[in-house]
User: Fold Arsenical-resistance protein from Phascolomyces articulosus.
Amino acid sequence: MVIGVLIGYYVPGVQHSFETVQFGSVSVPIAIGLLLMMYPIMVDVKYEKLYKILVSKPIWIQIAISILINFVIGPIVMTALAWATLPDHAEFRAGVVMIGLARCIAMVLIWIHLAHGDDTFGAMLVAINSLLQIALYSPYAVLFINIIPSWFGAETQMTVHVEIWPVAQSVLIYLGIPLLAGLATRYTLIHFKGRPWFEDKFVPFMSHLALIGLIYTITIMFANQGHQIIENIGSVFRVAVPLAVYFCIMFFATFFALKALGVPYEIVITQAFTGSSNNFELAIAVTVGTYGIRSAQALSATVGALIEVPVLLALTYVAMLFRRKLNWSTRSSLMTINKKDIN
Assistant:
């Protein structure tokens, strides 16, 4: 992060170079890094076990909990925090709300993987979030940016209109491409090299690629916005407050609520990260398309990505500490997913 900011501020023309390599509103260098992170995880997802998972009633309960967290609780919490901390900055507030509406589909899988969550269940939740996001993001933007504030007598922003295609494009790029590549790689190599070689040799090698992709992506993101960060440092700190609080509230509330219900660590941490993460690629694309690339809303969405990365990276260490230090119940209940359901 430090290296990226220094490059972005002191190396002339870095941001312009990034802007010339775009696919629509998607920065190609950042997209490459995200795909580099996603691909190894998608290779390791046990697709052959999805049927066994989906016939488990507790799994469906967890899916319902995930939908509640992501599409009801998450947007409400982010909107409330945006209004509580940015009452005098309508543009920044709108950008923060747009981040809260964009549910996780990409980088969350790296946090789940690093914290020893359940990759297969995580991929399933990401896929469900992606499909719901295509249908709900546009009406949610109108609801939370224009309609709900008017109920409390607040002046609304310019009418938000989000087309379905930018949302679908984000899903196709950051989920579809690595999913298809991972699926093809997994079963091709298992067929020709055998499962023992694949799991003992190839998967450990690919896990290093995911970490390289993470470091590369973080460096590129901060280099791309290094000049903006330094020149707008006051605004960055203002926007950082509701975002950092949001990530922590969503993570810890989900974590301890599910742990109290006796849910295994692997599922708890998967739910905690999917509930606290956001699709910053989509939020940036939509704010740039709606308000303009130099707008305060677009700056807020960009800051969202820069705050989310270090906060959730720190939370992976917190998660692993909890995994070692806390007692994890193995009792059976309706809310508990037994090991046989996920292994």
The chain has a mean pLDDT of 82. The radius of gyration is 20 Å. Residues 195-231 form the longest helix (37 residues).
